From TrEMBL:
It is an enzyme of class 2 (transferase). GO terms for molecular function: ATP binding; phosphorelay sensor kinase activity; protein dimerization activity. It comes from Flavobacterium aquatile LMG 4008 = ATCC 11947. It catalyses: ATP + protein L-histidine = ADP + protein N-phospho-L-histidine. Its EC number is 2.7.13.3. The keyword Transferase applies. This is histidine kinase. The keyword Transcription does not apply. Residues 66-132 form the Signal transduction histidine kinase subgroup 3 dimerisation and phosphoacceptor domain.
Length: 260
């Protein structure tokens, strides 16, 4: 009888130890898997932050490049001409000028002033197309297309099923710049002869579908060497809380879908 009860205690003791071991294993398992999950999440956050940093860097770099370009334009196209105008005006003060000389000098002055005016209009237009502010995004895109197709050998099919709200100028400027960059890339890199731009609602989200028939490129190995242009597009779309996807293969053109 006594031996039996000792057996029960031994069995209970073993059961208890087994239970403790199991609980320990379970606790350890949960602890480590939780740690792993947290670590994964931290890694994801770090990647996100690095991506944001990269975007910010590209915004700053582009801004600097733009400033450099504007400074160069101002210097080459305006300051240099105004300098000559100023020289000519001083020349007019020279005593005993003949009528012919005066005519030549004033012709010079009017010609150069005219050119400086045209340049300043062009520079201002490049910075912010006036039609965009005056007549909205649709008109701005139409003008952009006319400009692109008049000077280059590319045809653009444009279809807009959306109604852009007039007050949304800031958002529209981003969309305009994105299309400007996409068109530039299609012409410069893709040597495309046909581009199609379409605005429509897909699943009730305002979407732009863009495609060209150019050379295309390998998107898989391009991820790490995206240029400033693409990064800028990404940061503009992220300002708009939209999504951006690009699909391309060598010799199969480029297709871009973005929402905003
Ligand atoms: N429409 C396109 N057709 C062919 N290649 C393209 C196109 N768009 C982009 N690319 C490729 O992607 C690269 C990155 O483009 P981008 O970021 O605009 O930089 P960038 O224009 O300054 O080179 C380009 O150098 C080009 O190789
Ligand atoms: Mg580019």
């Amino acid at each position: 009888m006594g031996g039996n009860s000792v057996d029960i205690y031994v069995v209970l003791g073993y059961l208890f130890i087994a239970f403790l071991l199991m609980a320990g294993v379970l606790i350890l398992f949960f602890y480590f898997s939780r740690k792993k999950i947290i670590q994964k999440e931290i890694e994801k956050k770090i990647l996100e932050i690095n991506h944001q940093k990269e975007l910010l860097r590209s915004v700053i770099l582009t801004q600097e490049a733009e400033r450099k370009r504007i400074a160069q334009d101002l210097h080459d196209d305006i300051s240099s001409k105004l300098n000559v105008v100023s020289l000519n005006t001083h020349l007019l003060k020279t005593p005993n000028l003949s009528d012919d000389e005066i005519l030549e000098i004033t012709d010079n002055i009017t010609g150069l002033t005219q050119k400086a005016l045209e340049s300043s209009r062009r520079i201002a237009h490049d910075l912010l197309p006036p039609v965009l502010e005056k007549f909205g995004l649709n008109a701005g895109i139409e003008e952009l297309i006319v400009e692109v197709t008049s000077s280059k050998t590319v045809k653009v099919n444009y279809l807009n099923e959306l109604k852009f709200q007039f007050e949304d100028t800031e958002r529209h400027l981003h969309i305009f710049r994105v299309l400007q960059e996409l068109l530039n890339n299609s012409i410069r890199h893709g040597k495309a002869t046909e581009v199609s731009i379409r605005f429509s609602k897909i699943n009730d989200i305002e979407t732009c579908t863009y495609s060209d028939n150019g050379k295309g490129f390998d998107t898989s190995n391009n991820e790490s060497q995206k240029g400033l242009g693409m990064k800028n597009i990404e940061s503009r779309i992220s300002f708009l809380n939209g999504t951006f996807s690009i699909f391309s293969k060598v010799n199969e053109g480029v297709k871009v879908i973005f929402t905003f």
